[in-house]
Amino acid sequence: MLAEKIRHPTPCFMIAQVRLVRRKGHFVGTVDARHFVGNRETTSQEDYKLHLPREIYSRTAMERFSLLDKDYFAKKATEDKFPLEGNVKLAKAIVKNISKAPGRELVVLDIGAAGGALTTLCLLKELFGAGMVKVKSMLLDISMDALKATKGWDFVLPMDLLRKKYGWTDAFVNFAKGIISNAEIIQVDILSLDRQLEKADICISGFTHHHLNIYDKQAAVKAMESLTKSNCIVGVVDESLSPKDYLRWAAAHEHETNSRGQTVPIALESFIRLERHIGFLESSIVLAKGKEREYYYFVARKQ
Ligand SMILES: C[S@@+](CC[C@H](N)C(=O)[O-])C[C@H]1O[C@@H](n2cnc3c(N)ncnc32)[C@H](O)[C@@H]1O
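^ thats the input. predicted complex w/ S-adenosylmethionine below
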């Protein structure tokens, strides 16, 4: 059994054991070389309880992304790189698969927008390019600071890179600013949504489900389906690092600061495989999917 596991080491989920300690009111993660690799079939309920407490995921995410309110977009575009690349891939796959009815308003709901709404902006870029410019944006996040910075367009945008590598123009930025400044912002934990929201034509979630435990990833996919109109689109892009890559990432981010010089703690993360994530869809058919070393994405049509 053990040999079998070693020969097939692909984990269904992985949590690097970052030691989370409270310092000056914040959780600070100290990277520990041990990691917990498990799969759903062989992990006991006790292990789940020990390693997957929902409140630590939500509290550490809230702390990290509130401190990254103005810096998230630029950091992801210039330091980690793959979140921008993954969001562009997701956006292209969505626009390829939507029915193009000119003049129709598209309601775009972004779950886990973070400061700068990277996922929404990448989608807006593709919609703009395809002439689909009637868009209502809804931005949902557990962090109000992130939502406020985004709606106020008060965040760092690495324009040189975006122009050179991703073809952003002044015309697109003006269009995007107009949409984002009129966005509806919804501060809530997606796992305890307590209000009715307008249903979306496109419900997207970028690099957010890995901030949830495995049961809650399933709940988040279900919530996305229920927030999407029939015959419309659900799109997810998410991180899936190997234990080695995660530990490298966590070590590099151990002493992270934001542009105000404040310490930014890391948040608890867990990863699953694309196939398992897709398996959480209950009422949608998959239209497109893909994976790279650090992330995967899928686009589905809700029935
Ligand atoms: C890594 S950022 C992703 C930002 C952007 N979508 C992207 O693709 O890069 C994750 C965001 O999800 C938010 N988040 C984490 N857990 C959440 C939850 N349970 N409910 C709502 N938002 C959550 C965090 O506050 C953060 O802003």
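The first strand starts at residue 13 and ends at 23.
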